[in-house]
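lol forgot to send this yesterday, sorry. struct tokens for the thing we talked abt
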């Protein structure tokens, strides 16, 4: 009809143009929406794109409101970049504990450790891991030894929450080593292994934290221990390098793995001086076995939900981040009159230099929690790879 408005059919754009558009999308949430427009747009984009930059973390929150509510597998994810809450329906995780995250993958553990698997909640890819009920080997043992001859086991009383997890490379690499730090003990697993392997603690002191970088395990000890760090070579576990730095690091210390090495964060309590906590950042020098104090942290933002769930990113990549700070999650009571009727989660940032707190966001979209803080609350860096 003459004069009728022209309507463009966007599904008939040339495939080359659609592919060019898809590579201009930088947010993972926008990229997922792009692929759902129509079949032509979906086929013109890669399901596992490599052009997406590292994403700002999402905060994963359980949807369970009280102790009597059944787990329905639904989980809320607060998208820091988009300032938006996403709800994902994940029926495969019903009654499974969320124990740790790394590079877009979440570690889920069934009751008593009878089932353990990795899940990417965006792609729904799943990788089974040996149950924590299996015997474990010690690093350096002969692999041809029968599994039932191995006397070492996980403690049946372990609480499989708050697990720190590190990948040595992408999971697509068959040589990828998955390392977990659980209740002061370090375990690792490579695809094809029959069971977990324990990295034996060479000291009598308890391990405060651990990480894996450049084919080496780094075991960090509490203040007052015989050594500050012991390095164990995964290819030659009999080679152990003790490190003592000769100065106090702080009341609490933990390790971060970065693009250019291993970092250490030391927390010093200054309450007796009328100040907030002070955070100091160090980089471990692999050649000299010393720590380099990083005085300029303006390019560093750390995300924290509890003592073993830390994530560090480059602040300069994100205009919305304040560098030299740590993002933390608080559980805030909600009152009606003088009565507490529930709690909400709130995101705050804390300056590394002086501990000064600033409220960033109340998560009002999340349901009012009627029970204590959800142990599954943790930062998760989304990825489609």
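and heres what i got for the seq, position by position
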């Amino acid at each position: 009809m003459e004069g009728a408005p022209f309507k463009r059919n966007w599904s008939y754009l040339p495939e080359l143009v659609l592919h060019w558009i898809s590579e201009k999308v930088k947010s993972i949430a926008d990229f997922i929406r792009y692929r759902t427009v129509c079949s032509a747009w979906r086929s013109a984009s890669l399901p596992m794109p490599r052009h997406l930059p590292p994403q700002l973390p999402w905060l994963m929150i359980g949807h369970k409101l009280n102790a009597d509510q059944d787990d329905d597998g639904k989980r809320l994810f607060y998208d820091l970049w988009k300032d938006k809450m996403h709800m994902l329906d994940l029926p495969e995780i019903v009654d499974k504990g969320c124990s740790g995250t790394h590079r877009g993958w979440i570690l889920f553990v069934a009751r008593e450790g009878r089932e353990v698997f990795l899940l990417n909640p965006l792609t729904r890819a799943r990788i089974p891991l040996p149950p924590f009920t299996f015997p474990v080997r010690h690093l350096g043992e002969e692999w041809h030894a029968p599994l039932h001859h191995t006397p070492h086991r996980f403690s049946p009383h372990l609480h499989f929450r708050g697990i720190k997890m590190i990948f040595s490379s992408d999971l697509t690499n068959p040589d990828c080593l998955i390392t977990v730090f659980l209740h002061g003990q370090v375990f690792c697993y490579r695809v094809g292994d029959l069971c977990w392997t324990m990295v034996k603690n060479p000291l009598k002191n308890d391990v405060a934290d651990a990480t894996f970088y450049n084919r080496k395990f780094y075991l960090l000890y509490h203040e007052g221990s015989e050594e500050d760090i012991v390095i164990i070579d995964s290819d030659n576990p009999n080679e152990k390098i003790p490190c003592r730095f000769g100065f106090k690091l702080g009341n609490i210390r933990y390790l971060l793995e970065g693009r250019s090495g291993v970092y250490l964060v030391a927390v010093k309590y200054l309450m007796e001086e009328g100040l907030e906590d002070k955070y100091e950042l160090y980089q471990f020098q692999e050649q000299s076995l010393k720590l380099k104090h990083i005085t300029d942290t303006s390019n560093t933002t750390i995300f924290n939900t509890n003592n073993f769930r830390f994530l560090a990113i480059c602040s300069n990549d994100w205009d919305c981040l304040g560098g030299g700070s740590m993002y933390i999650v608080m559980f805030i009571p909600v009152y009606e009159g003088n009565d507490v009727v529930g709690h909400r989660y709130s995101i705050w940032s804390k300056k590394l230099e002086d501990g000064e707190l600033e409220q960033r966001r109340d998560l009002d979209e999340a349901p009012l929690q009627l029970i204590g803080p959800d142990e599954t609350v943790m930062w998760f860096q989304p990825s489609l790879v």
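The chain has three helices and 26 strands. anyway ping me if u want another try
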